[in-house]
Amino acid sequence: MSDAPEADRIELATSLLVQAPPGELADVLNDVRVLFDNDEELQEALTPALAKYNKDQHTLVSVPWTEVKVILCDAAEIDEGRFMDPISKKTFAIDHVDLSVSTEDDLPEDDREADRDALQTSLNAYLKSHYPNGTGAVYARDDGFHLVLVDSKYNPDNFWTGRWRSAWTWNADEGHLTGVARILVHYYEDGNVQLATEQPFDVTLPADTDAVGVVKAIRKAEGHYHEALNAKYAEMNESAFRVLRRALPLTKAKVDWNKIAKYKIGSELAGKHEP
């Protein structure tokens, strides 16, 4: 495959990387290595794809100044490859390949910090009650405050992984709260099934709504989304999935396809036994 045109190899590897399920990026990256002659070529070719993946998936990174992991996302990026940690008031550069952090610096002061911190406090309370293993941060940007959440669950022993991501923008001047929630789940026991769903939100609030009120609106919207998903899954389980289920054969036993050559199919189906 390394003989294929470079553009084709990069396009194929990129398409595979950006679709990597939660917690499985390293596996996909290892698989696409065969498309490149060496790791240096791989790193140079795929760094843009990894940067996109890390921001889209709200990848968490460890930093030396706090035990709390920091989110990589569009709202946190202040320059190409440089991100902010608004909670610790730091900025840093990131290597999107190995997620190493470098060139730490202080985040410039912002006169909206009191409002940002109030939103962060309310967001932390919401995380604690609804996403106990999740991480969230509030970013003060030119178009308003961005509230970003992420929570992942990895259960390779039972062949599944999943991630919840949501990103909200609160413009207090306009009383406008917009957001989007994304869910990605991968189940791969004896098969390969992925759930990818996205839900936009658009909420109008009084311009003087405080931090508690903003997060309360987020909690309400995301709660309704959870309920709608549960209802849809219950409906699908009783309708579409039921049609897909296969009944047992007439023998009332599953067929071991690895031993199919040893079965006496005709006599079994007829209820007869050869001597």
UniProtKB/TrEMBL annotation:
Q: Does the keyword section mention DNA damage?
A: no
- State the protein's purpose: F-actin-capping proteins bind in a Ca(2+)-independent manner to the fast growing ends of actin filaments (barbed end) thereby blocking the exchange of subunits at these ends. Unlike other capping proteins (such as gelsolin and severin), these proteins do not sever actin filaments.
CC terms in the record's Gene Ontology section: actin cortical patch; F-actin capping protein complex
Protein name, per record: F-actin-capping protein subunit alpha
The subunit structure is: Heterodimer of an alpha and a beta subunit.
An annotated GO BP: barbed-end actin filament capping
Question: InterPro entries this protein is in?
Answer: CapZ_alpha, CapZ_alpha/beta, CapZ_alpha/beta_2, CapZ_alpha_1, F-actin_cap_asu_CS
Q: Which GO terms describe its molecular function?
A: actin filament binding
* Record-annotated membrane-spanning stretches: none
Query: Is rRNA processing among the key words of this record?
Result: no
Spell out the Pfam families in the cross-references.
F-actin_cap_A
Indicate the family of this protein. Answer: Belongs to the F-actin-capping protein alpha subunit family.
Q: Which source organism? A: Allomyces macrogynus (strain ATCC 38327)
PANTHER family to which the protein is assigned, alphabetical? F-ACTIN-CAPPING PROTEIN SUBUNIT ALPHA
Q: Which UniProt keywords apply?
A: Actin capping, Actin-binding
